[in-house]
């Protein structure tokens, strides 16, 4: 059950004492484990402001948060002292949640490394001794597995170092992995064969294909060979040609409504704003030669059909 920051007389008197620097210094000097105390410069104790505590956590804690420097002077340590008069089976997790919130606020303040946050629980309940573990990993159904997960580096899928041949064996996720691995390449033509093979397997549905080609269009739609890339993929998978071109048509129609592609827009608009009509016409003819639809060229360049035709003659 939630409690207000000072919901009981116990909380109020606790905070009154522990918010005093000399009192807090004595408390920490007496109760901090030796291995931690020798790292703390207790002369640098500084009470953290209320604003440091996240609003959504204030209702859970009758806490006092102190910051201090390490004895080596090369880092920060926070000590959160929580008061509790009734045992809570999830107290360890609550303290861990509070500790990570304090770490985040420390980073938000501009620091580059995480601080050590030491959660301490001050308990004086009717039930004695305190009945629950204060190791948050013990709260899991499988504490051993939790320790294995949270005491080591998290799983990393770095697709940039996975060989393409291996990616091709990844079934339904292969298409996404292949495209995102190579999305920053200037030219996608090297993906045509592999992408065609994956399309033939039929592991992607229509919505996934639409999302994938929309992604490709956003990232590469303004590049000269994107139209050729789409046509080459469609040519290699004739059973999907109609579906692919329909998807591309839909994406292009949506693109007309949403606006111009940034790369093309910048060059064209700059030329138009500077009164360079010839530059706009040159770009328009280049786009037409590359297979970009006439309506899209007119919309992007701002030229009329008559202006483009007149230039050709």
Automatic annotation (TrEMBL):
Protein name listed in UniProt: Rpn family recombination-promoting nuclease/putative transposase
Superkingdom field: Bacteria
UniProt source species: Salmonella enterica
Residue stretches making up the Transposase (putative) YhgA-like domain: 8-209
Alphabetized GO MF terms: double-stranded DNA endonuclease activity
Family: Belongs to the Rpn/YhgA-like nuclease family.
Pfam families for this protein: Transposase_31 (PF04754)
GO BP, sorted A to Z: DNA recombination
